[in-house]
Structure formats: C-alpha cells, structure tokens
Amino acid sequence: MKIDDRMITQAEYAKTLRPFLPAKAFESDPSKIFVLLLNIAILICGWAIALQLNNWSVYLLWLYLPIAVVMGNSVIVLLFTSHNIMHGSVIKNNRLIHFLSLLGLTMLWMPPTMWKAVHNQEHHSKTNSLADPDRNYLYEQPKTWGKWIQNLFVPSFAVNPLFLTVGMATAWGVHAFRNLTSTLLFNQKPADYVPAAFSRSSKKRVAILGELLVMLSLHFCIIAFLQFSPLKLVLGYFLPIGIGYAGLMFYIYTNHMLCRMTTINDPLINSISLRVPKIFDKLHLNFSYHTEHHIFPGINSDYYPLVQELIQTHYPGRMNLLDAGDAWNLLMETPRHYKDENTFTDWSGRNTVPCPLNQK
Fold first, then answer.
1. How many angstroms separate the CA atoms of 258 and 221, rounded?
2. Is the pTM of this model over 0.85?
3. Cα angle vertex 92, ends 88, 95, to 5°?
4. Calpha distance 327→304 (Å, rounded)
5. Which parts of 106-157 are beta strand (E)?
6. Could you count the other beta carbons within 10 Å of the beta carbon of residue 69?
7. 173-219 tens-digit pLDDT
8. Is residue 73 within 8 Å of 247, Cβ to Cβ?
9. How big is the chain by its Cα radius of gyration, in Å?
10. DSSP per-residue string spanning 50-92
11. Distance (Å, rounded) from C-alpha 258 to C-alpha 355?
C-alpha cells in the first residue's frame, strides 16, 4: 500500500509546494503561441503537399506517410498547446485565449467553451469521482451505446487488437461527440450514455453550438481545399487526424484510467505521471507530467519537472509515477469498468481485479 493512505486535497498540495517554486513559474509564457501557430503552419504545408498527390506515382504514395506522421504530431501539439492556453499559463487576455483556442481545438472538434466546461471546470475539480465526465464507466451504469463503445475499443485485458487500433484513432472523436450531444441536446437530464453528465446555461450552450459551427466550416474548407478527392482526403486529412488522435489518447488513457476513484480530489492518488523519452516531453509540452499539472493547472508547463522533484521530496513514494510502457501494459492487463472505487471489472462483471496502483 502507499506510504500514507490519508487523502490530501489538491489545495493542500499546492499550499505546501507553492513556496518552493519561483515566481516565474506562474508568469505567462507567450512563446507557446508560436508553438501553436507553427503546428497550424505544419498542417497547412501538409495539405498543400497532399494537393499534389494525384500527380504522384502510386508506388511513391508511401512517401507521404512520414508527412502524415508529422501532421499527426501537430494535431497532438495543438491540443496540448490549447490546453495550456485555456488554463491561463500562456496569456491572460480572455478574448485572445478564446480565439487561439478555437484555432487550436478545431482539429479536435472541441469548442473552447465546451473544453472549459468538461475539462477545466468538471474534470479538474472532480477528478476520478462519480461526477467526473472523464472517468471509467461504472459496472452498474446502464449498458448504453457510449459504454458499449468504450468497452469495445478501450485498452483492457479483453480488447480485440483490431478494435483497439480503430479505437485509438477514433476515441477522441467519440469523447467529443458524447459530451457535445449530452450537453447540447439533453443538458444532463436523460443523458445516461456519458460516464457523468453535467449541465450548462442556455447562453453557454449557444456559444458551444456557434463555435462548433465555425469548426464545421473550417473543416469543410480543408476538405474543399483537398478537392473532395478520396486519395487526398485519406492521406492528407483522415490519416493525420487518426495518428494524432491515437497519440493523444495514449496519454489520456494513462492519465487516470488505472487509478481508483476518489471522493476527495487527491491528484497523487487519482492521477498518473509518465516517464517518456525526453523528445516527447519537448514535443508535447511536458504533458507526461500529469499529476503535477493537476496540482498546479495554471503553471508554466516548463516547470512541471521541478514540481515532480518537490513532490518526491515532500511526499516520497506517494505519487503514481510509471514508465509509459508499464502504464500501458497495466491497462492491457486489467478490466475497464469500476465495480467499486478500488476494483475493476469487465462487461459481464465476472472478472474483477483490485486497482493495481493500490499495491504499490
């Protein structure tokens, strides 16, 4: 078991660790705007190259695959950069935050007002609790289409490799669709196909719909730019998006899905940080330091490694820090539904295992 099983709130961790962090860690870092714009430019260049694919020999089309991988990485970076922007660590101007986030989140089909609701307000304040929209489904929840899709495509001991592959490339889209429809169409009342429903005011829902229509228009412009060509769309649009979604879902699946549920928002219990090759931390703005982010959501992500050092000094042995490969293997060895806050089970309820992180 962990050295200290007492639950500690996010606010308590922040109060303890804050004095050891430099003031600069909490200052805005506008350089992240350049990162966002650079990756938008990479996508535009990739689409411009895809425009010429009809002129390529069929035997040379494979040469576009490295370009698609680079574009896919840009999709990942756009989410992580927008994530930082919307947490206020990049700039403080609300209008500019909204505009840049709209650009950055368009490839993710996630309106900024929706992201602020589902991530900043709901997920961060209720992490891995019954009210967290990003948690695993409970075994006792109805077997709706949302739960069925997660069961079929999310990493677990029983997942089919083909379905897992498809799921990695599409799960983000399912997540966005699930939460958007729940909020826009039902606004909490009968939406039982999400892990946890939440409501927003009519004004916020109108804003979400308006932003979604802008994103739809931008995607249509991209598709039109690619001349509605199946070849250009498959290689230049769907493939990079699928690669990007798969990469970001690797992080998202390992952020919390292996953790037990908590009634008190204790980031060292309900979140996981990963050890990844340094190049990925450079490319992805230290997103692997996820526990650190949950303690200080608005801090400059360049300082996450320092936060990790402080956690290990002040709370030795308490945080969930795993090699990325080990975290993935644990996901693939365990069921994906909560039987109770400390136990996972499968669709049938017959196979149960304790949360593996409880055994540390």
1. 39
2. yes
3. 105
4. 19
5. none
6. 15
7. 999 999 999 999 998 677 899 999 999 999 999 999 999 999 999 99
8. yes
9. 20
10. HTTGGGS-GGGGGGGHHHHHHHHHHHHHHHHHHHHHHTTSS--
11. 7
